[in-house]
Amino acid sequence: MASLCFPFPSLLLLFLLSPSFAVAQTTNPNITLGKSLTAHSGDSFWSSASGDFAFGFRQALGGDYLLAIWFNKIDDKTVVWSANRDKLAPEGSTVVLTKSGQLVLNDPAGKQIWASTFTATNQSVSFAVLLDNGNFILAANDSEIVWQSFDYPTDTILPSQILNKGKKLVASYSETNYSSGRFEFSMQTDGNLVLYTRNFPSDVLSTDYWSPNTQSFGFQVVFNLSGSIVLIAENKTILNNLSSNNPTAQTFYQRAILEHDGVFRHYIYPRSGTGRNSSWPKAWSVSKFIPSNICLAISEGSDSGACGFNSYCRLGDDQKPFCTCPDGYVLLDPNDVTKSCKPNFVPQSCAYPEIDNFDFVSMDNTDWPQSDYGHYLPVNEDWCRNECLKDCFCAAAIFRDGNCWKKKFPLSFGKMDYSVGGKALIKIRRSNSTLQSQNLDKNCNNKTKIVIGSVLLGSSLFLNILLFLLTLLIGHRFSRRKLKFNGEDPFILGVNLRAFSYEALNKATKGFKEQLGSGAFATVYKGTLDDNNLVAVKKLENIAKGGSGENEFKVEVSAIARSNHKNLVKLVGFCNEGEHRMLVYEFMENGSLADFLFKPSKPTWYTRIQLVLGIARGLSYLHEECSTQIIHCDIKPQNILLDDSYGAKIADFGLAKLLKKDQTRTMTAIRGTKGYVAPEWFRSFPITVKVDVYSFGILLLEIICCRKNFEMETEDEDEMILSDWVYDCMNEKEIEKLVRDDEEARDDMKRVERFVKIGIWCIQEEPSLRPSMKKVVQMLEGAVEVSTPPDPSSFISAIK
């Protein structure tokens, strides 16, 4: 039997002072014995006194009904409790408060689906009522609670609710499927508060992936009206603040839910009125979530991890995880991203290894840590690739810091995060051999047909000679046509890209109508290819054979054709017809970093972190991983483009310099953009990859502060030149000034300080003091200590 009591006086006082509770106790019409509701099209419910909550039937996806409690005064009718989540009620079902005082849910035929249960008591139920705190109670004449929904939570707890020992929250299967899912939040009988994975579809617990660090055992989880969620001991002391520093329940609707993705989140929603909450958006906002990264938190056990087998988990810009299949794999169920992925090709056969028909897709910072069956060190990446390629059991290999791990099917606990490091090499069938080995019997039949055909053709000497001459004629004409189309340029013939005619690109761009941008040598236009794919067509202007524009064209095609990285813009093809020189790129629908960064509404700190990491990894690839080392020479916000998920991609290789393997520097005329150009350009020093490091350093400082490197109109003259101001702030231990209007960044000052130091190391005027981009990536990821840098100009000044 439960009663309206609380574990310590402060919570009781808050509860009694709650206006909503007082209304529920005095004015809410009681639900008398014998009253019922019927499930029909639309919602059928009883409401609390204020109308904040409703109890009744909600139609679920598929047409059946959930007996539930939900927020009823806001647009988002969020369900907070349900009775029959695992057995929905068909239309025409009824819920009735019986004469005996039991709440019973029956289907249309009168068969019981669910009923309230309570231990024997001397008190009999006299009425039911939905309180304004969202608790549905069955009460006796003296208002003592005989049964309450708060004692049987599903996936949510509300302000004034207590999670006692032995109680738990079980996540729903998905956002639209309310049935019990794969995760559990348990206040165990031994006093431990634990987040578990479940061996779905059974309810057997698998592995714990979060627990608070407490010295003492817990007694209750309490969600109080001040907006805090705390774990308390039996002596009422607070052991852990799960969520604190929130607005009160009087000013904001609140709920804490274990969501389908395994994350426990505290949400707030502004109540109608004025004051502090009047400027808040009318939507649920996340106040706190546990754990901070579900993709990394779940790393072992008997299940597949945060996502399904052969899938991998990564956080989006909103810090929520999403599951993705690697290239070459597709979902088992296209309607359920949490289920496993399967190869979209015929796996390698041990009987017929077909080594030449397989290749690898490379994925940075990705791992499936529980699928190892071989570990080798020290080795290089080529050795790791070859070892997996010739092993028919190897589905993927992970290469990191000289270590090689071979992985077998099914791949489990997949995760992608910058802290993982290294790269995953996913073995897939080459696209031109996708149909091979699908059916060995069929292949044998085909081979038989080919042999028979060859014999028949070989029986005629005349026919063989005729076919040979015909082949020579066709080959000769084709080669002449190809040379003519490509302008007889042997350089272009060596590039494996799609060649477009001028007519095709003129049609794709509707006569070069929609301009996206322009530069000294080129103008970029938006286009649509015949397959409806959007592209950006870069049209080089006034190009003469052998001129600078011609060289720029060749350099850009060569540079990008030799590169393949997710943080580089993909070159789709080119046009080299007559005087027309054009480059066709994938279209970046979110424009440039300059458009995104320098606007009144700042991108979130988390988004900026991902942009910094993406740009750094792209540059590191150009400098150290390409077969021909590439110096970009013009890193700036305008040359960083954003894909549909705001991922950074380096673009515009028109000024790039290519270095041979045994070459570390080059002499060239000054190039680049003012403000981002390294000092050695002006001193006639040899140019190395360190010029890109300098430009990246300026760009990093801009991303940290969300402002340009030079701003004439500033209130403080000392802030005019960004690099000088940043160094002064670091030197005077006032780095918080750089993010003074950015609350999210201010909550992450250790990372801000690390990024600032990295930026200043990158802009050292002496090139040898700047780190390599590979080391920059390691410093950004926190894998390498970052010491305090000197004044960027101190080394040059000392020489003078």
Q: How many β strands by DSSP?
A: 45
Major sheet strand order: 36-40-41-39-38-37
* Largest beta-sheet details: 6 strands, mixed
Number of helices: 17
Pairing-aware structural class of the strands and helices? alpha+beta
Calculate the mean pLDDT score and round it: 82
- In terms of quaternary structure, the protein is single chain
**N/C terminus separation:** 86 Å
Strand content: 25-35%
Number of spatially distinct domains: 6
Uncertain runs are 1-28, 432-463, 478-494, 658-672
What does this structure look like?
The chain folds into six domains: 18-151, Bulb-type lectin domain (Agglutinin, subunit A, Orthogonal Prism); 153-291, Bulb-type lectin domain (Agglutinin, subunit A, Orthogonal Prism), CATH 2.90.10; 312-433, no CATH class; 440-478; 495-586, Phosphorylase Kinase, domain 1 (2-Layer Sandwich), CATH 3.30.200.20; 593-799, Transferase(Phosphotransferase) domain 1 (Transferase(Phosphotransferase), domain 1, Orthogonal Bundle), CATH 1.10.510.10. The chain is α+β, with helices and mostly antiparallel strands. The protein is 23% helix and 26% strand. Strands 36-40-41-39-38-37 form a six-stranded mixed β-sheet, sandwiched between helices. It has 17 helices and 45 strands.
